[in-house]
Design goal:
Structural class: alpha/beta
Number of domains: 3
Number of helices: 11
Strand order of the largest sheet: 12-10-11-9-8-13-14-7-6-15
Shape: globular
Helix content: 25-40%
Number of strands: 15
Strand content: 15-25%
CATH topology of the largest domain: Rossmann fold
Largest sheet: 10 strands, mixed
Bound molecules: S-adenosylmethionine
CATH architecture of the largest domain: 3-Layer(aba) Sandwich
Length: 361
């Protein structure tokens, strides 16, 4: 057998003595580089691993690693601190996660990060996730490639579903806004496939809300006009799949609800009718209207709960958090969209500038 020259992420992590997620973060920061296989998998060359190890062998160990852990927001880019693994050697480098913190004000946090490797969100800490992930339909985002093949799209989905599962508390809920199906580039049962993946990730299924966004522009392709040869059927709706982690009954939190009688009666009818949001007005290629997270938040969380949107985009979920008195955390891979979300918090959310905790990216 010849000497191995390319390593998977798992093996590279083992070789360097860090976790796989640390490898992703190191790569993002240019500390190590990889190439991609045809299937999109990372491969690290032995040269790249050696170069990293040579360059980093002289780091000094802080005298009190725990103190350093707490002060990570003061650590500059590219600095690495060390923590012991249950006081056992060897010491493993830990890259501080708070460098991902882009903005914080009062009860709102925006992280400029990739949701897959991020370690910025604590496990078992979230009451409700409301999100709309990329749909894999070729939307032109700044950073994310939305044109991947369907099986790659499902692998990506599997990855972030597993992360979301970890972030939720045991009685945490998950409102997932996705398309019912996909017609571009071959018909696919997106909602059914993602719901199956979510159940495989451990989520329990509660219900599905149909969102009729009254978008007639979807009604364009007829297939074979007035013929049974190959007609197209298109439902001009999206869905919000409602899932939960372990127990549907919510016991944690303030137990204070702010939903009115009228809202409760209207929203527990699982067909929601309200308009979509204008891309042009918001300045993002796929925003949902604030009304969508607002309804999910009021229906499924208590006042003061913590809400996460792992695909923040233009920040609609955080605007809904501000309106409803929930703590809001958003993760967004693209820095420009983080800027946009922050701007919307000031212009549309009227976030109180005096309460800012002055942490900005
Ligand atoms: C459908 S949009 C969300 C729009 C959002 N609901 C709004 O109202 O603006 C999906 C967002 O996910 C972001 N994104 C894609 N991949 C990501 C990843 N791995 N981690 C974090 N954000 C990601 C994209 O940049 C895009 O802004």
């Amino acid at each position: 057998m010849g000497v191995r020259s390319m390593f998977t992420t798992k093996d590279a992590a083992k070789h360097i003595g860090v976790s796989q997620s640390t490898i992703y973060r190191m790569e993002k920061r240019g500390l190590i580089s990889s190439i991609r296989t045809a299937g999109g998998q990372r491969r690290f060359s032995i040269e790249s691993i050696k170069k990293y190890l040579e360059k980093n062998q002289n780091f000094e160990v802080p005298k009190n690693p725990n103190k350093y852990k707490k002060l990570t927001h003061l650590v500059k880019e590219q600095e690495v601190n060390y923590v012991t693994d249950n006081n056992k050697q060897p010491l493993t480098p830990k890259i501080p996660s708070s460098d991902e913190l882009f903005f914080q004000a009062d009860s709102i946090w925006i992280y400029n990060a990739d949701i897959l490797p991020t370690e910025s969100i604590e496990e078992n800490s979230i009451d409700l996730i409301v999100t709309s992930p990329p749909y894999g339909v070729g939307i032109k985002y700044n950073s994310h490639d939305d044109t991947m093949a369907y099986h790659d799209y499902l692998s990506f989905t599997k990855g972030w579903l597993a992360k979301c599962y970890k972030f939720l508390k045991d009685d945490g809920r998950f409102c997932l806004n996705i398309p019912l199906d996909k017609n571009k580039g071959g018909q696919q049962s997106v909602c059914a496939d993602i719901t199956t993946l979510a159940k495989q990730a451990g989520f329990k299924y509660h219900s599905t809300i149909i969102w009729n966004e009254q978008n007639i522009s979807r009604r364009t392709a007829w297939g074979s006009w007035l013929s049974a040869a190959a007609p197209y059927v298109i439902a001009p709706v999206e869905v919000i799949v409602v899932l939960y982690k372990r127990s549907w009954k919510k016991t944690s939190g303030s137990r204070k609800s702010d939903i009115t009688r009228k809202e409760f009666m209207e929203w527990t009818n699982g067909v929601w009718n309200f308009m979509g949001e204008s891309k042009k007005r918001v300045g993002h290629p796929a925003p949902f209207p604030v009304e969508l997270p607002r309804r999910c938040i009021k229906l499924f969380s208590f006042v003061g709960d913590t809400v996460l949107d792992p695909f923040l985009g233009s920040g609609s979920t955080l605007l809904a958090c501000l309106q409803t008195g929930r703590k809001g955390i958003g993760v967004e891979i693209d820095r420009k969209y983080c800027e946009l979300a922050k701007k919307r918090l000031f212009t549309e959310g009227h976030i109180n500038q005096l309460k800012l905790a002055v942490v900005e990216g």
